[in-house]
Amino acid sequence: MRNVTLHAFNWQYTDIINNLESIRDAGYGAVLIPPPLYSEPNGDQWWQRYQPKDYRVLLSHLGGKKELEQLIAACHGGTPQLQVYADLVINHMANEDRTDHFDFPGTAELERYKKHPDLYEENRLYGDLSEKLFSWFNFNDAGEIEGDEWSDRGAVQYQNLSGLPDLKDSDWVLQQQHNMVDALIEMGFDGFRIDAIKHITERMIDNLADDPKFKKRFWFGEVLTGSDHDEDTFLDPFLRETWMSAYDFPLFQTIREAFSFGGSLRTLAQPQHQDNSLPWNRAVTFVVNHDIPHNDGFRFWLLERQDEHLAHAYILGRDGGVPLIYSDHNESHHEQDYDRWLDLYKRPDITAMIEFHNAVEGQPMAILYENDVLLVFRRGDQGIVAINKSGSNQWADFNTWGLKNPGQYRDLIHRYEMTVSGDRFSLLIPPRTAQMWLAE
């Protein structure tokens, strides 16, 4: 089954539609689109999508409801079918400089609805657009999250994130969130990413997670963690309190440490046994996500470019989780990021890795060789993954039990071929290289 998900970060909906052939050819099984809820249509900055004005309207700089319907139809109608996931922002509303700061969509927007009734009716998701959606009493009033409060679960859930008006888990708010998701499912969305989910109360999550209709979709949350304390405070309770999947930040941090100077690839052999990764059926794995390059506080989490390549080979070669591949249009304003993730989704090394992932899906993983700089493992008898993070040639000598023997294998990344035979086999892995051998 194809389950690799393309995060089409800040793509216009028509861009996704126009590139569906190459997305399918690359082997993806799903596309995660940016938050579709109403945000400033003239706001081309990516962060605008994370500041919704109204749940009842699907309109942004990226397109409107009609384009979304066309996108879903094109994804579902082609072969193979692609799943479509929507990014949802339900913790907060937009931080706007206006006197009615806690009225949404606000007086000016309601006037805009009246002046352009056809436009907003065309993009209406549900509800009566002649009335406001939220007022001041629908928001928490506990101030900003500051200092040590970032490590306190209560403060993180009930206080404001960077000035953004923080929604209460009141009956009215929960009903509107339920209505919004119900309408999105009726449109055909197959799943949802919940942004900033560690800032949301269990009651707000359960309002969506406990609905039998909603459970049929794929749900995952962004529980951003960077330390053992964060995992204990935010991630572990999330995993206990809900069945939803989550970004595998523990594995990401293990990957970062493994590829750092002095780090060991041994930690990636069986990370789940050291509590360094999420359960295989709850994990959304990644090497980079949109927060890391765009927020200065997280940029130190970026891997060196070749390490990022090696790490992609690891998450697409290993068993477990739903791999998420980030691909943007050069939204980062940092010069050193230029073209780094532009069209990454169809870069030849990435498509080779996805081909390997799809071919060995469901095959058990077994370690063939490991040391601090070299990791080699097999996927059933169909595939071999070898990763050398060092600056010199490395040899791996391993037992061939469990592999095709004799067996012809092709490295999908470099298009080399080799024949595995005998009781033991020696494999050469050049410096700073990943190999993904698939049985022919």
UniProtKB/TrEMBL annotation:
<comment type="similarity">
    <text>Belongs to the glycosyl hydrolase 13 family.</text>
</comment>
<dbReference type="InterPro" id="IPR017853">
    <property type="entry name" value="GH"/>
</dbReference>
<dbReference type="Pfam" id="PF00128">
    <property type="entry name" value="Alpha-amylase"/>
</dbReference>
<dbReference type="InterPro" id="IPR006046">
    <property type="entry name" value="Alpha_amylase"/>
</dbReference>
<keyword id="KW-0326">Glycosidase</keyword>
<dbReference type="InterPro" id="IPR013780">
    <property type="entry name" value="Glyco_hydro_b"/>
</dbReference>
<keyword id="KW-0119">Carbohydrate metabolism</keyword>
<dbReference type="InterPro" id="IPR006048">
    <property type="entry name" value="A-amylase/branching_C"/>
</dbReference>
<keyword id="KW-0378">Hydrolase</keyword>
<dbReference type="GO" id="GO:0005975">
    <property type="term" value="P:carbohydrate metabolic process"/>
</dbReference>
<dbReference type="GO" id="GO:0043169">
    <property type="term" value="F:cation binding"/>
</dbReference>
<dbReference type="Pfam" id="PF02806">
    <property type="entry name" value="Alpha-amylase_C"/>
</dbReference>
<dbReference type="GO" id="GO:0004556">
    <property type="term" value="F:alpha-amylase activity"/>
</dbReference>
<dbReference type="InterPro" id="IPR006047">
    <property type="entry name" value="GH13_cat_dom"/>
</dbReference>
<feature type="domain" description="Glycosyl hydrolase family 13 catalytic">
    <location>
        <begin position="3"/>
        <end position="357"/>
    </location>
</feature>
<protein>
    <recommendedName>
        <fullName>Alpha-amylase</fullName>
        <ecNumber>3.2.1.1</ecNumber>
    </recommendedName>
</protein>
